[in-house]
Design goal:
Structural class: mainly alpha
Distance between the termini: 84 Å
Number of domains: 1
Radius of gyration: 29 Å
Order of helices and strands: HH
Number of strands: 0
Largest sheet: none
Shape: elongated
Length: about 70
């Protein structure tokens, strides 16, 4: 039977808690570094309509391929 004294249990618990804390701090810092920020400016636009294409790159490519196929079949 394995017998562990109180001091050894305290050391093991401290090591586990310290390791978990360090891991969570490192993961938090990595998440903050991975965020990409892009500076934008607000310009006054009067009477204009701005349209932003929110499709993904793959959706755009699928539509482009379909359009090219339609043009080739004519």
């Amino acid at each position: 039977m394995l017998k562990i004294n109180r001091k050894r249990i305290e050391i093991i618990l401290f090591a586990v808690i310290a390791g978990a804390t360090m891991f969570s701090l490192k993961a938090e810092n990595q998440i903050q570094k991975d965020e990409i920020t892009q500076q934008t400016t607000a310009t006054p636009v009067s009477g204009k309509v701005v349209i932003l294409d929110a499709r993904t790159w793959t959706e755009k490519m699928v539509e482009l391929v379909q359009m090219m196929e339609r043009q080739n079949h004519r």
